[in-house]
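User: Here's a structure from my thesis project, written as structure tokens. My advisor, Dr. K., wants to see whether a designed sequence matches the one we expressed. Can you design one independently, without my sequence as a hint?
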């Protein structure tokens, strides 16, 4: 609009044309883009699984540490209880008051042992779930690695062909990835056409 003239407009009878040619070059570019999109989807899925696994692993580790601390405290109390029972047995038995105190300790230890057993079962269930997630995560990693290997095998080398070409009457565009690469190819070829 600075020159007050529209340089680029469609004219079916024009002497100079710009042609977008869909052939094996563009087809290969489209297939490559679809493959890249598929690889990205697999990578996104893997990253999602990885994040979920890491979150659940942290929660499992926290519960395991809490269980181990509670178990260590239980073991100390049980050892102290056993020592006290041996002491009173070696003296011929405990007084009625001491017996009632020891019986209350035994019942409390049994309650703690039952709670620890439940917690251990919960931890084992979480461990089974984590192992299943590791397997799923590893399968996703294998899928990703296979997809990348196939991509690299097919597209790892430079695809050899002209993206575009100019002759005195036309510009032919054979391949572009997106609007930006199309603009770049057209700019380049128009530079040739204008002898720039």
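Assistant: Designed independently from the structure alone:
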């Amino acid at each position: 609009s600075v020159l007050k003239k529209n340089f680029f407009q469609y004219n079916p009878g024009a002497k100079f044309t710009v042609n977008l040619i869909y052939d094996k070059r563009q087809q290969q570019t489209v297939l490559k883009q679809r493959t890249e999109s598929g690889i990205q989807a697999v990578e996104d899925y893997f990253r999602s699984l990885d994040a979920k696994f890491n979150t659940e692993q942290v929660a499992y580790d926290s519960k395991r540490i809490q269980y181990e601390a509670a178990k260590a405290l239980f073991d100390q109390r049980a050892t102290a209880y056993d020592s006290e029972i041996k002491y009173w047995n070696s003296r011929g038995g405990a007084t009625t008051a001491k017996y009632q105190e020891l019986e209350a300790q035994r019942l409390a230890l049994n309650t703690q042992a039952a709670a620890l057993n439940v917690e251990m079962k919960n931890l084992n269930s979480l461990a089974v779930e984590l192992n299943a997630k590791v397997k799923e995560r590893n399968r996703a990693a294998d899928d990703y690695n296979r997809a990348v290997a196939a991509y690299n095998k097919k597209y790892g080398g430079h695809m050899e062909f002209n993206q575009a070409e100019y002759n005195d009457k036309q510009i032919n565009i054979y391949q572009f990835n997106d609007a930006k690469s199309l603009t770049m190819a057209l700019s380049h070829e128009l530079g040739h056409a204008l002898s720039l």
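When you compare it with your expressed construct, this may help: The chain is about 70% helix and 5% strand.
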